[in-house]
Design goal:
Layout: E1 13-14, E2 23-33, E3 39-49, E4 61-64, E5 69-75, E6 78-79, E7 86-87, E8 91-94, E9 105-113, E10 123-127, E11 130-134, E12 154-163, E13 169-172, E14 175-182, E15 186-197, E16 204-207, E17 210-217, E18 223-230, H1 239-256, E19 264-270, E20 277-278, E21 283-287, H2 300-315, E22 324-325, H3 331-349, H4 352-372, E23 383-384, H5 393-425, E24 430-431, H6 433-444, H7 449-456, E25 462-470, E26 475-483, E27 498-505, E28 523-527, E29 531-536, E30 544-546, E31 556-558, H8 563-572, H9 576-599, H10 608-618, H11 625-632, H12 637-646, H13 653-670, H14 672-682, H15 692-711, H16 713-722, H17 726-738, H18 744-755, H19 759-770, H20 777-785, H21 795-806, H22 809-812, H23 818-831, H24 835-842, H25 853-867, H26 875-885
Parallel strand pairs: 2-12, 18-19, 19-21, 22-24, 25-31
Antiparallel strand pairs: 1-23, 2-3, 3-9, 4-8, 5-6, 5-9, 7-8, 10-11, 11-16, 12-15, 13-16, 14-15, 17-18, 20-21, 25-26, 26-29, 27-28, 27-30
Bound molecules: tryptophan (TRP) and zinc ion.
Length: 886
Amino acid sequence: MRPDDSAPTPAPVLLADYAPPPYLIDTVRLTFELEPQATRVTAALAMRRNPAALVEAPQDLRFDGRSLKLIAASLDGRPLPAANLRIDEESLSVPAALVPQDAPFLWECVTEIAPVDNLALEGLYMSKGMYCTQCEAQGFRKITYFLDRPDVMAAYEVRIEADKSSCPALLSNGDPLARGDLPEGRHFAEWRDPHRKPSYLFALVAGNLIAHEDRFTTASGKPVDLRIYVRPGDENRCAYAMDSLKRAMRWDEEAYGCEYDLGLFMIVAVDDFNMGAMENKGLNIFNSKYVLASPETATDATYVNIESIVAHEYFHNWTGDRVTCRDWFQLTLKEGLTVFRDQCFTQDQRSRAAHRIADVIALRGRQFAEDAGPLAHPPRPRSYLEINNFYTATVYEKGAEIVGMLHRLLGPELYRKATDLYLSRHDGEAATLEQFLACFEEVSGRDLQQFFRWWTQAGTPRLKLSEAYDPEARRYALTVAQQVPPTPGEPKKEPLHVPLAVGLLGANGAPLEIGGEGEAQTKILELTAPEQVFVFEEIAEKPTLSFLRDFSAPVIVEREVEDSERAFLLTHDPDPFNRWEAGRDFARSTLRGLIREIQAGGDPTGGEDYARALGATLADSRLEPAYKALLLATPPAEEMASEAAQRGETADPEAIHAAKTRLARLLARRLEPELRAAYAEFGAPEPYSPDAASAGRRALKNAALGYLAALDGDFAARQFDSAANMTDEAAALSALVAAGAPQAEAALARFHERWRKDPQLLDDWFLRQALAPRADLVERMEALTRHPDFEWRTPNRFRALIGGFMANHWRFHAADGSGYRFAAHWIGRMDLLNPQISARIAKGFETWQRYDETRQAQARAAMNDMLRAERKPSKNLYEILSKILE
Ligand code: TRP
Ligand code: ZN
């Protein structure tokens, strides 16, 4: 049977077509009679005409609805026979003539759905015996007929009836009203959410769950019950998520003046989930992997993820729930802002520099690739076929950078005034980016219209620099030119308003006085023209430029500098981001040199200078271990392929792989004493604590281990055998697998034996193997797909093995096309069940044009195969692949 997501070449939805809804919904009453095969949903909607509707004439009452079996419908208590309704795949319409125009009216309907058959995990579905919902963006229409759009906001009352023994917990948004027993072993619960909300924030959960409980008192003294619901047995793995939640609640009060607004806040962990987590009002639903943690089963990276995702979803309570989006084109209004907020939270809780660097690595790795390829779109797109395809790195991460630039341009005080104004002015409303920016203009008195283009124009700006120093005039002039390359559908680009944080260094490495901030003398320049000259007076010596400090704007700086200048900044730049950046740039230029040597044939010789410079920073005792660990990580293959494309060259996966392998071995040999010293210093067993300082020590130790494993497999095997926490155990396993060490097979077998009952760790076990640098990997993958634990319908498992493989640059881009065919086969299979997942994973093909013609032909064939009509590709997958192929 085909799911309902396969309409042929559907028409796009356009931002320009936005019109207010003709009708509004004031209150919603829902009753769920839960049964796996046949759940009855009774809806009563108190409705009226929208006084702000643009059209005067009476409009048909058109509800969204998909895959619903209509049992009955009525208006103001009068049954509506089916003959009076128009029902198609996507909607139900009541003719205008039947709809009261001058008075409020009551729409009632009964529908039936089958949650157990819902494998798309959108709407009401089941995961391991429990019921749960996912309504963002348009899942509510799979529950009942509704005006399923974010500018229709209503107060909800919900009654849930279910079997008492299999579903002791019955949850929905807001506050509990009542609960009690029903005949035949059933029971019910009633909930009321007093805050008006759009349908995408509705949630229901029912199942055998137990709560890990705590309390929080808000700044104004209101008590809040906090509950994290998990399956029995997992309740002792919730402490970190709970602790993160309380810290996030406090932080939001202090940083944004945002207090929680209900007496109860719940998080539910679910194993089958399409994304990370969801901010449903008062009832956040999470992918279990972002809730559950214990030292034995979770790595430091998992702890960081839990902390930031718990915070992200909690922060949505104000930026998303209280103030929501008028339409889905404004998605970045809630997501970009909320990501910026969670990034600041993480930086405040942990190391500012290390997390800024991590965020930029992620932005460059995912968003820059998106912006440079066929799927490039502005943070506020102008059209979509399937909105679920627009939960992208551009909407989220670039969106966060844009809010960060406003913070930088206005400074912290005005920024806070602007968000205060935004949250109070639009509280309870569905807002737009224009309304958001207007608050920043009002509090600052500045014209930010040019800045608005960051949201409406796709593509990463390229900056070109030229410097001139006049010793006589003691004047340094920096010329900056900006240019945005064309992107699909946007041939012409306008100049952007770009904040540039810069500093100048003297020959002794000390910052020069330029009237900037703090000891580092960081100054914010504002680039607005296509080309602009910035003049610095009273500069006594020829300075070294430290440009784009803290990565003050999401741009690409096209600038060739000597390795000696990189080494100088790597030693002296007081801006920790730029110091790391100099090292990264040095690593890239070293890899470029090695790639060229390898392509020319013969034995590569490069890398010695980089090894020396890196050795010196490792010896610098003033640097935090976490920061040194970041310096030790050389650029991933993906980054090298992307920069080759930026330079107009063909990316060569074989040469990139060989160069990376060669550099890793060279660094291991040249830095062996320093690496062993770091390992010895930070490798001593200590009781596990997830705090940033301890995690930093483990990060450095395990970065050292990664290099040393290539020289000595026994070294990593010993750590694997004796590890007292999952961070050390997983790092040792990765090191063995990545080094192709002979000890890897035994370690993988042990890991599986130890952890096969733990879904998150099984995911990791599959992921490690998918990332292995093995020539015969595709054969190995085929075998893994037949493994009894490969429960491929579960998104986490599918992402681990298939998504993991596609992130294995060398093997996914194998010259014979075997990697492309393998991935396409599985994406095609998944598309029949869960189009959100298939379409998301298919984005791994977006970079295909970076490679040679043979690879391009193979990739094209694999994509065309997924699009074959008889496969009935979903609208989601169709939109992604047809754009990639265009
Ligand atoms: N709004 C969610 C978040 O914070 C993400 C989300 C969108 C989502 N669609 C989803 C989560 C579907 C799960 C399933 O960021
Ligand atoms: Zn979000």
